[in-house]
Write a structure and sequence with these properties.
Blueprint (H helix, E strand, L loop, with lengths): L1 H57 L2 H5 L7 H13 L2 E8 L4 E4 L14 H7 L4 E5 L7 H7 L3 E9 L6 E10 L1 H42 L1 H14 L5 H17 L1 H20 L4 H13 L9 H4 L7 H19 L8 H5 L21 H15 L11 H10 L7 H12 L6 H4 L1
Antiparallel strand pairs: 1-2, 1-5, 3-4, 4-5
Helix pairs in contact: 1-6, 6-8, 7-8, 7-9, 8-9, 9-10, 9-14, 9-16, 10-14, 15-16
């Protein structure tokens, strides 16, 4: 019902908007997590440097080396002042044996040992680690109430210089609200940019689809011809199989209408030549299906290359060469077409081994691929292209004969020439 009311482009516009919105939200949520982590990490490292400076400047080297036996009474005044004038809420100091040697929270904690505490072990190894304990976590609500707001716990090694000896660990409880403000302002920018990018992408892709839909309408008649041929050759397959083939060929036709006409011509030539070679009905059916689909891989080739009105550059030619490999991959993903993969993949191999994609030669090239190669070359030569006019049938025949033993299988060319002489393989304009 929705498809009837909106049409194909309308349905695409609706669903692409939904998908793009979901994708944007997911990406932005991931970015949110990353930004929050970076902001908190930066804040934690800054706080670690500040407190480490307090400790190092307050205590002597000897006191730092013997934190467990050092009298830290004088340190109380420094920490009390820091708590009043900064975002620090509390400080603990641990010795290397994981025992608490100072606490601005609970003096009764001094002297207790907490072996195996992961954050302390990481800090003793030289890392700065943190935990963001916010009140949206059930286990942190009581702590948030105690400190008058959410906090970030920072664990950092006590060192007289970066990379130097670790004398112990300090644990700092820092207010989270300043960090949250920085996070929120950063995230507003990210969400704004993401929304703007999503809208722009949506508009661009909608214009592309509308343009493609227009080209699809223009080539509608040829697509119907392809559909009829497919239905005739696949009447023994299930109904969904025919639909899959129609979708594939129509997708390529939407990019380059020449490809559909070319596929029809190649199919006629290949089937006629196959009969001259004495192929059985099963082989003829496979050859027909492969010929109709042999250029399906061009769905991945840029339209600027397919429709270029001049000879291709080497880089562009290499890009076009990828279509046989890509076509084989597409067909190989469809169970009932897997038998066609070798034909499609190798229809640009040469008898002398100079073709692509695998450089196969002689009898190593699948027989039906050799038939398709000759039919493909003949139709290409006798068709008008943006960069050249079509050859006459006689000239194209001479080119085929010149390629015997180098580009083409001699037996296939012999059969094809017989097909030309019988009138079954003339120019496409003569056949349709």
């Amino acid at each position: 019902m929705i498809r009837r009311r909106l049409g194909v482009v309308g349905v695409f516009a609706l669903w692409s908007a939904v998908v793009l919105a979901v994708f944007t939200v997911v990406i932005t949520l991931i970015a949110t997590h990353q930004i929050e982590g970076m902001v908190v990490t930066s804040s934690a490292k800054s706080m670690a440097a500040t407190v480490n400076g307090m400790i190092v400047h307050t205590l002597s080297d000897e006191q730092l080396r013997n934190l467990r036996t050092t009298d830290l009474t004088q340190f109380d005044a420094v920490i009390a002042d820091a708590i009043k004038t900064s975002d620090i809420r509390a400080v603990k100091i641990w010795s290397r044996d994981a025992s608490v040697v100072y606490s601005s929270l609970d003096k009764g904690e001094v002297g207790k040992v907490y072996p195996g505490y992961a954050n302390i072990e990481s800090a003793l190894a030289g890392e700065v680690v943190w935990n963001a304990d916010t009140s949206d976590k059930d286990e942190s609500r009581e702590e948030a109430e105690f400190f008058g707001g959410d906090v970030v716990e920072v664990y950092s090694p006590i060192q007289s210089r970066p990379g130097g000896e670790v004398f112990g660990v300090f644990e700092v409880y820092q207010r989270y609200s300043p960090v949250r403000g920085t996070v929120v302002s950063s995230l507003l920018g990210v969400w704004g940019i993401s929304a703007a990018a999503a809208i722009l992408l949506y508009v661009v892709q909608l214009r592309i689809v509308m343009s493609a839909a227009e080209r699809l309408k223009q080539s509608e008649a040829e697509a119907r011809v392809v559909s009829v041929r497919l239905q005739e050759s696949l009447r023994d397959l299930e109904e969904h199989s025919v639909g899959t083939l129609q979708a594939l060929t129509s997708a390529v036709d939407a990019k380059d209408s020449y490809t559909a006409r070319h596929s029809l011509g190649v199919t006629d030539y290949a089937v006629a030549a196959g009969r001259h070679l004495g192929l059985d009905d099963v082989q003829i059916a496979s050859l027909e299906r492969a010929a109709l689909l042999h250029d399906i891989g061009k769905i991945g080739t840029a339209e600027a290359i397919l429709l270029k009105p001049r000879q291709l550059t080497r880089e562009e030619y290499l890009a076009v060469q990828e279509h046989s490999d890509m076509g084989a991959s597409i067909i190989g993903s469809i169970p009932f077409l897997k038998d066609l993969v070798p034909i499609v993949r190798h229809h640009h191999e040469r008898w002398d081994g100079g073709g692509y994609p695998d450089g196969l030669s002689g009898e190593n090239i699948p027989r039906l691929a050799r038939v398709l190669s000759v039919a493909d070359a003949f139709d290409a030569m006798t068709s008008d292209r943006p960069y050249r006019r079509a050859m006459k049938v006689g000239a194209a025949r001479e080119e085929l004969e010149r390629g015997v033993g180098t580009q083409f299988d001699p037996a296939v060319v012999t059969a094809f020439v017989a097909c030309i002489e019988s009138g079954e393989c003339g120019s496409r304009n003569d056949m349709h």
